[in-house]
Amino acid sequence: MIFVRTCNLIFRKFYIGALSIWEELFPKFVSITTNTAQGKTSSATTSEINDFLDQKTNKGNNNSLSFTLKVWRQKNTEEKGQISSYEAVDVSPDMSFLEMLDVVNEKIELDGVEPIAFDSDCREGICGSCSLVINGQPHGPGGGVTTCQLYMRSFEDKSTITIEPWRAKAFPLVRDLCVDRSAFDRIIEAGGYVSVNTGSAPDANSMLISQDTAEEAMDAAACIGCGACVASCKNASAMLFVSAKVKHLNTLPQGQPERKRRTISMLEAMEKEGFGNCTNEYECEAVCPKNISVEHISFLNRDFLKSKI
Ligand code: SF4
Ligand code: FES
Q: Which atom of ligand 1 approaches the CA of 232 most closely?
């Protein structure tokens, strides 16, 4: 990595130096024609190219931001944790929150400090791994987005950002900002499946489902299992997550054979894992990056009652 960066720097210096000489000798020919993405042409001078390269690295850019990060550090489940401070400088407003953490990690690693452990995978708002409480709010101040889709322009320049892990008994801390969310997997194992053979895609399309039903099921299926609903709830309840999974399958014809069993066993698994119950706080809905509605919880409660009778 250091070798590549050094080569990059040498090339950049050489290229800009050569361009400056050319500019002095032939000022009229200094326009460099480049193809833009639209297939049109545009012109750039040496200083414009320099600015462009600086923007890329965000060095010396007037738009660059800096932050003081207060990060929860904890070696493992047993040891006590504490908040540690780090400086994030030359942060581009277009960096995602996780990219900013990557840059901070690169710097502190060079200083011999253990990098901050945090989870991520898809970085596209799909997998639900990026579970961080930012300034006291799961997934931060964006609203309707996951941490990986939160951009640094959402934060005030030179402000202090506090970063903590999900805090819930059922999500034991593994290290720093990583928690074990396998309790969700065990709830899914308890009933988040269908036993009927649904065949291939053409078979599925041959089963008529009304538009309303399909949309209801799809809205519920948007849940990515991130756990922000649990992290925001004073009871650490997983009702929003469970209700989304139950509603997704219980509304579709393919989910009917296990409907009653699914509802009861997923709720039992939720209790067994140590999640609390719902007392209508609505915090879960407010922080959910996929805007899962608390109406699904009403559906779950109705289905639970019917299943018990
Ligand atoms: S309901 Fe929302 S907050 Fe809860 S796990 Fe699903 S996507 Fe995450
Ligand atoms: S990393 Fe996958 S949702 Fe954020």
A: 3
- The mean of the pLDDT values for the chain is 86
Mean pLDDT of the region 34-42 = 38
Domain boundaries, the chain: 2-60, 65-175, 181-193+211-308
**181-193+211-308 adopts what CATH topology?**
Fumarate Reductase Iron-sulfur Protein; Chain B, domain 2 (1.10.1060)
Q: Would you say the CATH fold of 181-193+211-308 matches that of 65-175?
A: no
Which of 241, 141, 144, 231 is CA-nearest to residue 186?
Answer: 241
The tokens describing 125, both together, are 């708002």
Ligand with an atom nearest the CA of residue 168: 1
Instruction: Give the SS3 label for residue 201.
Output: helix
Q: What share of the chain is helix, strand, coil (3-state, %, to 5)?
A: 45, 15, 40
Closest by CA position to 214, among listed 254, 241, 187: 254
> Which carries the bigger pLDDT value, residue 32 or residue 99?
99
CATH architecture of 65-175: Roll (3.10)
pLDDT at 57 over 50: no
CA 61 to mean position of chain CA atoms? 27
> Best of 122, 130, 224, 300 to mutate for ligand 1, by most ligand atoms within 8 A of CB?
224
Contact indicator for 243, 278 with CB cutoff of 8 Å: no
